[in-house]
Amino acid sequence: MDLILDFSLTSLFLISVQFRFATWKEVLMMVEGSVCSLVHGAASPLMLLVYGMMTNTFVGYELEVQELANPNKTCINNTITWLDGTVVERLDNSTTYCGVDIEAEMTKFAFYYVGIGAGVLILSYFQIALWVSAAARQIQRIRKMYFRKIMCMEIGWFDCNSVGELNTRISDDINKINNAIADQVSIFIERISTFIFGFMVGFIGGWKLTLVVIAVSPLIGLAAGLMAMAVARLTGHELTAYAKAGSVADEVLSSMRTVAAFGGEHKETERYDRNLVEAQAWGIKKGAIIGVFQGYLWCIIFLCYALAFWYGSKLVIETKELTPGGLVQVFFGVLMGAVNLGQASPCLEAFASGRAAAKSIFDTIDREPEIDCFSEEGHVLDKVKGDIEFHSVHFNYPSRPEVKILDDLNVVVKAGETTAFVGPSGSGKSTTIQLIQRFYDPKEGMVTLDGHDIRSLNIQWLRSLIGIVEQEPVLFATTIAENIRYGRAGVTMEEVIEAAKQANAYNFIMDLPQKFDTLVGEGGGQMSGGQKQRIAIARALVRNPRILLLDMATSALDNESEAVVQEALDKARQGRTTISIAHRLSTVHNADVIVGFEHGRTVERGTHRQLLDRKGVYFTLVTLQNQGKDTDSDKPEYKESPKCSVFKLKHLSYRRSLRQRSHSQMSNNIPDAISGKFKIHSDHLETEEFDKSKRKDEEVIEPAPVTRILKYNCPEWPYMLLGSLGAAINGSVNPIYALLFSEILGTFSIQDLDEQRRQINGICILFVSIGVLSFFSQFLQGYSFAKSGELLTRRLRKVGFQAMLKQEIGWFDNPINSPGALTTRLATDASMVQGATGSQIGMIVNSLTNIGASFIIAYYFSWKLSLVVTCFLPLIGLSGVFQAKMLTGFANEDKNALEAAGQVSSEALSNIRTIAGLAKEKHFVSQYEEKLQAPYKRAKQKAHVYGICFAFAQCVIFMAFAASFRYGGYLVSNEGLPYMMVFRVISALVTSATALGRASSFTPDYAKAKIAAAQLFKLLDRVPKISLSKTEGHSWDDFKGRIEFKGCRFTYPSRPDIQVLRGLEVSVHPGQTLAFVGSSGCGKSTSVQLLERFYDPDEGQVLIDGHPSASISVPFLRSHIGIVSQEPVLFDCSIAENIQYGDNSRTVSMEEIIEAAKKAYLHDFVMTLPDKYETQVGAQGSQLSRGQKQRIAIARAIVRNPKILLLDEATSALDTESEKVVQAALDEARQGRTCIVIAHRLSTIQTADIIAVMSQGVVIEKGTHEELMARKAAYYKLVTTGAPIS
């Protein structure tokens, strides 16, 4: 007893850790709820007292009837006497009581029952409602605190935690905590209270027997305790294993285009599957362990029955210490206590997994960020000049402590001057910028602003002084005006407009149909590079920063856009301290000071002229870059004429989308080719509304038919059969127990002592054998269903993931299918489906056999009484069904509402650097909290509904007892039904009803499972518009690589109103190089995407070797194409594995890898790394510099040995030194291959066989460099405008 109490107290103590965030109000709610649970728990034992009195009444009545069967006996003054008036004495000289008015007695008992039932109704409603709403409030608070804490972590923490994992934590782990602190606790308390009161009733009835039973019960407590511990441990392991798989999925879905281009779908599915295996193993272990303990519990309980009954009957018959009613009371009191203790153990499972989940969440909440961006501490300077100085700074990234990035760096940046940092990639230029923003703190040395160490300054204030424009600016999924407003709180519209004018963005914004209210799409996907860049500059300027940091702000732009952006930057620099990092040295030569970096330290500083004279790092970079020039240096200056300012939109092209997310959303509208004016389509003004309504339609999902779910579980049928067998045996245990129990009561009215003893021993032996049997059957059920369920979950996750990878790229453009949402869907849906099979089937089989056996027994012995009892069964069943229905309704809404919050958190975590730089963390926190309001309101409503259903279900049984025993009394007195039959019928049917109830208590899972399954099947049934199967479409042997575009017209599915290609005509022969040039948004990258068959043209054809692309097998076509894009996506594995990714149809040998690496000028660099080819590249290749990533991408394309090579601005993001190397590698790769090059930098394509100049989706002129220069038309204008060609 002590052990059990002790155990429940410790578990309650451990749970209490999860209530750290409760306010006094919630504590009060939980205390009130607990009190209700306690009192509710006492109701059943209280009923036992009534039951005991009732049993005595029945036994007495039966003895009286047996005596009076003798015609010579009669009843006088409530004592049985002979007809001559002498009192009848029994063997032990006692007299026999008579004159029981059985019906009146039964009426009295019926009223007791009704009273208890009414109490239960009220208590159980409050118990659930209070606990569930208290939990909802705490979870709301935990969600907020967790998100807020993550948002104020320093950037180094994000380097070490993957975004996918954090998203999973926010959704799944917090739900686990919710399960552990809501209704489960109140039910746990109620069960423990029943346990305690049950034992008390036992002691009141007969202490000897109670003690005997108690002697055995520690065995039960022990089992439950061990089980909880084991489950917690295993759940923890399972969680970590799943988090790994989740981050794989997130990584793959985020870089869908790369996966598609290299045919990596199968490989990625396998990689995902490998991570699932581990989690599956833990899940199966968990099932087996639960099975063993459950079996052990039941076995012990039945052995207890045997012992208690054998000893109890001794006390009744031989020593007369107990009445038969007393025996029933003790026996049931202790039994009820024990069973409730057993039933409390599933709650412990929920607590345990909740605690495991809480640990990781609370650890984060408790972690003190090294750089807390919410902290109010630190000085605020009254006047800022803007002198920045680095004093012998040493630094390495926390995720890679062994690589030194800055090595004793000393730099002075004077106020009001423009200082340019130049140097090869990986020399630490961008790192200095991150240190100035205080994303990281230096390991040694310090960074000062006006002589103050920036660590002593207030961080929000410090960041508010700094404006930053990056190479790949991140815009948020809202309007242009809002994006600019992110720069500073409380900006007026005038200031927004002013900033837009300074950034040369005003004109193009005013040309848009919705002007400043145009939505930029997720990640700014609807804007071209130049437009995004200018919006980002406006955002930086609206801050009115003292310090402006430009990190390669123009490198990703084409010449025309670059000239405009450069001009905006030159305006912006006036009178501010500016640090500019650029790879194109043409953009830095007019800086006041140029600082040369090499290997993490500065090697030279001076003006453009001084450094050229010094002939150091800068000189080499400049001379390298100038070799490309072959036109005279006095180029006409490019002024933005009104005509040119008709801005060129470009769709978020291949390269960018490859890196960021898998969007490819298009430019907003395309200038009309002929008039040079805008044609605006009003269709997409409604897109947002349309999107909303579309989402509504999409979410109405019919639950999936169970048969289909089972089909997926087909291969496990032997396990399911075994499990069902186990469940069937477990189900029939209860009815058999009802039979034996009534037999026991029957034995007390047997007059012959020997017969009585013989029967009793027989019954005890039966009890023992049932106990042993149920041990095995419970284990069988637990293990088999865990195995089949885990295998199913894994299979569904795998198929779901496979189905996602099979979809055409256009599908990923739909914001509903953003990587974040898809990862969450994989994580939660598949594991929920388990609720519809596996353990659920076990539950159903168990309940069915239970109900079947009970009905047979009951109707066989007394059909009249059975009918009365049966009337109550539908109510008991109904309450369960009702409960289920309620929860399904909620399940759907909850999920959606949390998905909205999930999108906010996903956007925030993916772009954490930008948000930190803008000091906008608080804004995102409040946006997230706003999105949590709706689900929170619903959770609170749910509490009451759930409470009402639960209360109804709990009190029905008391009403059933009242009616049936009253009628039983009538049958006994009027129709001579033996009283043991009354007990037999009622206990058989009531146990079956509780089985029904138990089956229905699993219904919430079941409902959720069906909805989750339906969502999965919807995905599996979707037929992709472009099939990836190897069998569809044809292939041929001698693939040449001749490409023709014939009259291609194309619009992106996500922007149906804008035509990107308008009749593209161009062809290229095998082995030739075709270069596409043209301003942003003219459809260059789009043509590449059509060639890869990410999309198919709406009209016209793409012919490859004369075959229309739509008829060619996609894997075959892609296997002959290699692609190198501007921002290559690398996967989070080793360098060798990334190169091997080039050819996923076979295993690439190490020799080939090295061969390819040599061709890509990568080998020497790799050999300098400590782990050589086994070096991990980090998430998205974050551990490498751009030039290194680019060369890995080239090696990856070479390994493929493609006939067609696509180079999509492959060098634009590199500095000069890396670019030379990469360009050389590309030139080598082009040998003997058909090559399509897209370049913004014209020097890289002068050697091409054909140069096609595109504008607004058509080719306006084509020819070689010389021919086109001679024509003095569009190409000539492109070559001679904008920044000097580098």
Kindly summarize this structure in a few lines.
With 1286 residues, the protein is α/β, with parallel strands linked by helices. Helix content is 60%, strand content 9%. The chain is built from 42 helices and 22 strands.
Molecular structure report:
By secondary structure, the protein is of the alpha/beta class. 60% of the residues lie in helices and 9% in strands. Helix 2 packs parallel to helix 6, helix 8 runs antiparallel to helix 27 and helix 24 packs parallel to helix 28. The longest helix has 55 residues.
Features:
1286 residues, six-stranded mixed sheet, 22 strands, elongated, disordered N terminus, disordered C terminus
Largest sheet, described in full? 6 strands, mixed
- Arithmetic mean pLDDT: 75
Any idea what the shape is? elongated
Distance between the termini: 85 Å
Beta-strand content: 5-15%
Walk me through the topology.
Blueprint: H1 2-16, H2 24-68, E1 73-76, E2 79-82, H3 102-151, H4 155-160, H5 163-181, H6 183-205, H7 207-216, H8 218-254, H9 256-261, H10 265-319, H11 324-366, E3 388-395, E4 406-413, E5 418-422, H12 429-436, E6 444-449, E7 452-453, H13 459-465, E8 466-469, H14 480-485, H15 493-502, H16 506-511, H17 529-542, E9 547-551, H18 559-573, E10 577-581, E11 593-598, E12 601-606, H19 608-614, H20 617-626, H21 654-659, H22 687-699, H23 706-712, H24 717-747, H25 753-806, H26 809-813, H27 819-833, H28 839-861, H29 863-910, H30 912-918, H31 921-975, H32 979-1001, H33 1003-1021, E13 1043-1051, E14 1059-1068, E15 1073-1077, H34 1084-1091, E16 1099-1104, E17 1107-1108, H35 1114-1119, E18 1121-1125, H36 1135-1140, H37 1150-1159, H38 1163-1167, H39 1186-1199, E19 1204-1208, H40 1216-1230, E20 1234-1238, E21 1250-1255, E22 1258-1263, H41 1265-1271, H42 1274-1280
Helix pairs in contact: 1-8, 1-11, 2-3, 2-6, 2-11, 3-5, 3-6, 3-11, 3-31, 5-8, 5-11, 5-27, 5-29, 6-7, 6-11, 7-10, 7-11, 8-10, 8-11, 8-27, 10-11, 10-25, 15-17, 17-18, 24-25, 24-28, 24-32, 25-27, 25-33, 27-33, 28-29, 28-32, 29-31, 29-32, 29-33, 31-32, 37-39, 39-40
